[in-house]
Amino acid sequence: MKSSSLVLGPLVRYVGVDSATFWFEFDAPGTVAVRTAVGVVGEARTWGVYGHHYALVALTGLPANTAITYDVTFEDTRIWPEPGATSAVHTGDPVGPVTFAFGSCRRGDNYGEDSLRRIGADALAGLGNRMSTQDPSEWPQALLLLGDQVYADDPSPEILERLHARREGGQGPDSARGTDAENEICDFEEYSWLYHESWGAEPVRTLLASVPSCMILDDHDLRDDWNSSASWRKDIETRPWWNDRVVGAFSSYWVYQHLGNLSPEELARDELYEAVRTAADDAARERLLADFSLLVDRDPSAGRWSFYRDFGDTRLLMIDSRCSRNLDPNDRQMVDDAEWAWVRESALEGSHKHLLFGSSLPFLMLPALHHLEQWNEAVAQGSWGKKAARVAEKLRIALDLEHWAAFGKSFSDMATLTRELSRSTNPPASILWLSGDVHCSYVARADFGVGGKEVPATHQLTMSPFRNPLNLPIRAVNRLAIKRPVAALMKKLARAAHVGPDDVHWEAEAGPWFDNGVMLLTTEGDSARLRVEHAHLDSDRKQILKTTAKIVLAP
Length: 555
Fold this sequence. Notes:
It contains 16 helices and 22 strands. The chain has helices at about 115-120, 125-130, 155-170, 190-200, 205-210, 230-235, 240-260, 265-270, 270-280, 280-300, 335-350, 365-380, 385-400, 410-420, 470-480, 485-495; strands at about 5-15, 20-25, 30-35, 40-45, 45-50, 50-60, 65-75, 75-80, 85-90, 100-105, 140-145, 215, 305-310, 315-320, 355-360, 430-435, 440-445, 455-460, 505-515, 515-525, 525-535, 545-555. The chain is globular. The termini are far apart.
């Protein structure tokens, strides 16, 4: 029997070899307990903000590589799973294979016929439906959500209707009324609607209650083109609603996404988490999160959204490539010096068979687009004069030219780090970049000019969207972007803007694809294998996945 008190969850967030965390939202304060079939029990008291009540339950001392069933009680009443159903998590195997399901860009619209016609089948629904027929040993070990988990600047028709009713009723922030953001999400309450819509419907709800998830933010979690450039920041900060949006976005991201990225040990050390849980009342918690949100927006060093997780001998290093940017026109960086130092340290420490860089934005774009972004950055910085710089800045925003290629120093830094890792005493078998954002999926094989017999396999794996397909004209542009003559033309354009030659060579070896989908990466020993799956509707209108490609990345 499902309790009305459970608003969202459980979400299985962190799962290690012997520990796990479970995230919940309730509509009232209380105590939630997670009880496992192996006798391990954990409980936590809720804490509240903005009329919502949350809890994270951490379990430790779990047996490794084991499918463990669990149930949930709230105030001693069983609330999960549904009658007749079972819920399980599978703890990590320190030596066995690991499968990661990943992608980005997912609209939370419902599964009615209108939505299915407009934006197609949902890859996560397809994955959830498949898992319902599988043994837990066949499930992915992690689900990586690589940005745009919600669309604050483009809500669904249902959310938009609700938003209008709230604003017309005199609720919500006054700052957005009558502005360019009047049809956009602004405060914590409105952000909560997006998460409920996106994660509350079956079969995605059960998927998230079964497979641990790792999440990182991208621009639509706040607003399209977020932190593209210094001029973008200067303009957006003049909007009357911006501070309200920042507080709503970061406060809700911290609650709904960031906390679950942390291990039980990291949660125990997190000062803000401790302060929020022990604050005197909800108002004090709201002030803590609002102050933190405004501070971290202006000074990224005040917090860190990046994190890493180890899955046996595979390290996932998730990079915040939005909030931590340095937008100084004279020192543009995808991640600032402090964040990059952390990335380098996390990548170089220890010895890992496989190193996965999770970045919402692809490191290696389709070749022609890479050179176009190089050209645009150089011209916007003044290589063709002030008048051309103004035009280039407008193009940067209009065409979303703000990936790693548009931050030349950071692109070079990542290439240098890759060579350093490749030439180390015990190099990884593979170095892979897992990304989304571009609503186009592809696999690119890269050559960093490292000689020797044991050179890591280096690939860009881009999967986007989960559910938000591109329109046909932009698909045509992406198809052209892999053509060698077009790439050569764009390279000449970049050289004409005084961009130096790249010291990395890559080509798309599979794709591009444009349908809603998900990639599944399996690392085992020295090998890395990829399956590309796309979402479809079967004859019964059930959302399913079909395999499009199987690719051996590292033999």
